[in-house]
Amino acid sequence: MNDLVVPQSELESAQALEEQARRARSVTFETERCRKDGRLVPVRIAAALVRGVGDGTIFVLYDDITAIRNAERALREAERQYRELVESASDLVWQLDAEGRWTFVNRAAREIYGVSAEDLLGRAFADRVEPEHVARDRAAFQPVLAGGEVSDSETVHRGVAGEPRHLAFAARPIRDAEGRVAGAHGAGPGGTGRDRYDTGPALYD
To answer: Judging by DSSP bridges, how do beta strands 181-188 and 4-5 pair with one another?
Structure first.
């Protein structure tokens, strides 16, 4: 990192960094520095006032975070492609919280239910289930909320006009950062007739 120089556009911020390090004794932030070949490099800078030195010497450590930034861009691109895949799927792809409320539904919701995905968010999935199937659907989700999985579960939901929608789904638990089950997600084919059950359900992690 010995070939790094402060670009002209960053001179004021570099001076501000020095002043902040003198006041706070240490500071860390991310910015860009310029290599001698003119290429800008993202860096994390840690600066600290050296104690016991009378001339106010500041120790500055540069960490090249190019690989981190590249990984972040790759992750964002992968997420974008995944979202496009999910949104273009003809199968219903969904997520529920632990209370059984929709937290995500793809665009297939409009074809199946006759309403936009946004109109379903925050509402209980049971609102769209045929009354005689509600208890069975709730029971089917209990193993998932306990950490298990469900596959090939058949049910009948209702469109906005009350028309039946025969669905088959697979589901897995969603876990929070501590590993606790926070809901469920899954996918499966849906339509107006039982012939749609012949298509094996797909699950998107």
So the answer is: unpaired
**pLDDT for 16-72, tens place per residue?**
777 776 676 777 878 888 777 778 888 888 887 777 666 667 777 878 898 999 999
Report d(CA 50, CA 46) in Å as an integer.
Answer: 12
Tell me the HSE value of 66 on the side-chain side, using a 13 A CA sphere: 8
* Confidence band of 88 (pLDDT split at 50, 70, 90): confident
**pTM for this entry:** 0.61
- Nearest C-alpha neighbor of 203 from the set 83, 76, 91, 84: 91
Burial of 110 (0-12, 13-18, 19+ CB in 10 A): middle
Asked if 153 contacts 133 with a C-beta cutoff of 8 angstroms, the reply is no
DSSP 101: B
Cα–Cα–Cα angle for 59, 63, 64, rounded to 5 degrees: 145
Distance, CA of 160 to chain centre: 29
Give the dihedral of Cα atoms 127, 132, 134, 135; nearest 10 deg: 160
Tell me the C-alpha distance between 17 and 97, whole Å: 45
CB atoms within 10 A of CB 192: 13
Q: What one-character DSSP code corresponds to residue 99?
A: T
